[in-house]
Amino acid sequence: MNEGFPTRLRRLREARRMSRRTLSELCGLSKNMIAVYERGEADPSAATLCLLADHFGVSTDYLLGRSKNF
What we know:
Layout: H1 5-15, H2 20-27, H3 33-38, H4 46-56, H5 60-63
């Protein structure tokens, strides 16, 4: 099964024991956006995708589920 963005984002966040609200605040997003992304209800902008990838120290390709390598 190929993991997509919502699953990868949730797993990275949970691995760091971080709440959705905390991640939203750290990235300058509205408090509910991480939940929206994790449910697959919206896709992040390119800028937000880069911000999240940088925060977790992974590539955008990994975050999008296009690569198995961080």
